[in-house]
TrEMBL record:
UniProt lineage: Bacteria, Bacillati, Actinomycetota, Actinomycetes, Geodermatophilales
Residues annotated as domain DUF222: 79-306
InterPro entries (UniProt xref): DUF222, HNH_nuc
Protein name: DUF222 domain-containing protein
Chain segments carrying region Disordered: 314-357, 410-435
Signal peptide, first to last residue: none
Compositional bias (Low complexity): 319-354
């Protein structure tokens, strides 16, 4: 008990973005920090426990009674060094299910070994357990240690000093992962698309089940929006006591189980798609579909299907660089050459192949097939001497005398003579005199077999090193080729003009065709262009191609829509404020601002104008709370910064999300 008190007194000072309250709310904050600290402490303890249960104690793969190969392959990488029975000890100790025990093991080991800064922040009270999930799901799987550590550090710095909910952190994490590890994210998306499907599971209430559909983001958004539109299209009936969600479920059943038996008209679905210019030109910049972060490839495919204007989806290889197939063939050739190289020689691959890249030679260390370390040789000699003595004793050697054995060993293994690299390994005659049952020959053969096994293992290790080096060179060549391709240059462009200059003529033509598309066809409205501050990402103006042409002709610059005379904002002002805020501005809320209504006047109209500097986007619930919750204050600055003050005096600030 004394140890626990000491731990509490010496715990790191917590960091709170809104300060510490007094009274019961302050006690809640203190309890929450202690929960975080104990969660971190439990993770470290679980990891320490796992270290005492190595997988080497389990039966190896292929042995009777071992874990099946399929189950072993599904096991998380951080769990493979841990005994499969460690989870069972946690089941007994904590009264939890096996699944929960394995999840606790995986989470704890991941925090300790792959997210150490996150674990420190949790222990210091900067995070609570809910913040862990986006970091565990998105950041921990990043294979590159440098990228993962840099992203973890930057995310923790971004959270400092602001109210951040797990959903907000998850949105930030997805966006940053797509920026820094876009190609791996694309690979994960491709694997997930192959796993899409529909499943059902029992609900907690007997007689009910939950149907789950794993779909791409645009498919899921369109499905939910379509079902909502069908439900809203049902005739109003005062006697119908169904909620909107119940009507959507009934419409889904009717459309799937009874197609053609309804006279409901078809509905149109509106999806808000936000794509940076670079993404439309073939780059990897993250995009949004109805507020959900998605890879650029998803948006390009969706817009191409809706508009009929195919956008660039693959990057042409840079001049002089090989295609992916050629790079693969080169890697295969290097691998074959490495396998056939004589033992102890380096394959001729330290210089780049002609046309592979223009970054100069890539120096990769090559290990010899057989490398004899002096320390290892001394250890091996001592071990063989000890094994020989034990072998002789076990075989019942006649007149066994350790001193005599040492003399025989010294005679049979003289110190190496530089002038004579070979030596005679024939057993001396006096040893044969005592070996009337063949014990010396068997012992010598056992030593020879062990030496052959060590030699084979070292040769296999040398081949493995060469294969790894070849794969690293092939990956470096592929990354260099992609970085010099149009898609790579567009992704690295610091601004839209540079991205346009780096794009191919085909990509620019496809983009022009998309922007020229107006209402009708697959689009409910013409594409809008968001002009943002290059440094802060703040919205400067919302426009479209016709307005840009008029501005170029008349010389009148773009600006924020002016004041609307009445209570409701005009169409241009309404679009501008919704594009600026995009989500509810209440701290921690990520709900979308409804398509109609919910733009609040900070200073009530008509005392305050219907202008961008006096309008804030809220979800319905927080809009009501702004007017009805007692003791709360909402203050809006002209630049859109919103300050919310609670009845206990805590303040939180939100700004319009940057693009």
């Amino acid at each position: 008990m004394i140890d626990c008190v000491d731990d509490v007194l010496t715990a790191p000072a917590p960091v709170s973005p809104v300060g510490l309250s007094s009274g019961p709310l302050g006690e809640v904050q203190a309890a929450d920090r202690e929960i975080s600290r104990q969660t971190a402490r439990r993770a470290r303890a679980v990891a320490a426990f796992a270290a005492t249960r190595p997988a080497s104690a389990d039966r190896a793969q292929g042995e009777p009674g071992a874990m099946s190969g399929e189950r072993w392959a599904r096991r998380a990488a951080v769990l493979r060094p841990v005994s499969e029975w460690a989870a069972q000890e946690l089941v007994v100790a904590l009264s939890i299910s096996t699944e929960a025990a394995e999840a606790l093991l995986e989470r704890s080991l991941t925090l300790v070994h792959r997210l150490p800064l996150t674990l420190d922040a949790l222990e210091a009270g900067m995070l609570h357990p809910g913040h862990l999930w986006p970091l565990l799901d998105k950041v921990a799987p990043i294979a590159d240690d440098a990228i993962r550590a840099s992203l973890e550090r930057d995310l923790l710095a971004w959270m400092a000093g602001r109210v951040t909910t797990p959903a907000q952190l998850g949105d930030k994490v997805r966006r940053e992962v797509l920026k820094r590890d876009a190609r791996s994210a694309a690979d994960r998306l491709a694997r997930a698309i192959r796993e899409r499907g529909v499943s059902a599971r029992p609900d907690r209430v007997e007689g009910m089940s939950v149907v789950s559909a794993l779909l791409t983001t645009p498919e899921a958004a369109a499905l939910v929006a379509a079902l909502g539109a069908y439900a809203d299209a049902l005739p109003a009936d005062p006697a119908d006591g169904r909620s909107r969600g119940q009507k959507m479920a009934d419409c889904l059943l009717d459309l799937v189980l009874r197609p053609g038996e309804t006279d409901l008209p078809p509905v149109q679905v509106v999806l808000s798609v936000i794509a940076p210019l670079g993404a439309l030109l073939g780059g990897d910049q993250p995009c949004e579909i109805d507020g959900q972060v998605v890879p650029a490839e998803t948006v390009r495919a969706l817009l191409a299907a809706l508009t009929g204007h195919p956008l660039v989806t693959t990057a042409a290889p840079v001049d002089g660089a090989p295609s992916d197939t050629a790079a693969t063939d080169t890697a295969a050739t290097d691998t074959a050459a490495a396998d056939t190289a004589p033992a102890g020689t380096a394959p001729a691959d330290t210089a780049p192949a002609a046309g592979r890249h223009d970054l100069g030679p890539i120096e990769v260390p090559v290990w010899p097939a057989v490398a004899v370390d002096p320390e290892f040789e001394r250890w091996w000699t001592d071990t063989v001497r000890r094994v020989l003595i034990e072998e002789l004793a076990g075989r019942g050697a006649p007149s066994l005398d350790p001193a005599k054995v040492e003399a025989v060993w010294a005679a049979d293994h003289p110190p190496p003579d530089p002038a004579s690299p070979t030596r005679d390994d024939t057993p001396p005659a006096d040893a044969d005199a005592d070996a009337d049952d063949g014990w010396w020959a068997r012992a010598d053969q056992a030593i020879q077999d062990a030496g052959d096994a060590v030699l084979a293992a070292q040769q296999a290790l040398g081949r493995a090193h060469r294969l790894v080096a070849t794969a690293q060179r092939a990956d470096a060549a592929d990354e260099a080729a992609w970085a010099h391709s149009p898609a790579g240059r567009v992704t690295a462009a610091p601004d839209a003009l540079t991205a346009l200059a780096a794009a191919t003529d085909q990509a620019r033509q496809a983009l022009a065709g998309l922007l020229a598309t107006t209402g009708g066809g697959g689009l409910a409205d013409r594409p809008r262009l968001v002009l943002t501050d290059a440094l802060t990402g703040a919205l400067l103006a919302l426009t479209d191609l016709p307005v840009l042409r008029r501005a170029a002709t008349t010389g009148v610059g773009l600006r924020v829509p002016g004041v609307t005379a009445g209570y409701r904002p005009g169409a241009a002002l309404d679009r501008h404020v919704r594009a600026r805020d995009r989500r509810c501005r209440f701290p921690g809320c990520r709900r979308r601002v409804p398509r109609t209504g919910e733009l609040d006047h900070a200073v009530p109209w008509p005392a305050g104008p219907t202008a961008a500097g006096n309008l804030t986007g809220y979800c319905t619930g927080h809009h009501r709370g702004k007017h009805q919750a007692p003791g709360w204050r909402h203050t809006l600055a002209p630049d859109g910064t919103l300050t919310v003050t609670t009845p206990t005096g805590l303040t939180a600030v939100t700004t319009p999300p940057p693009y």
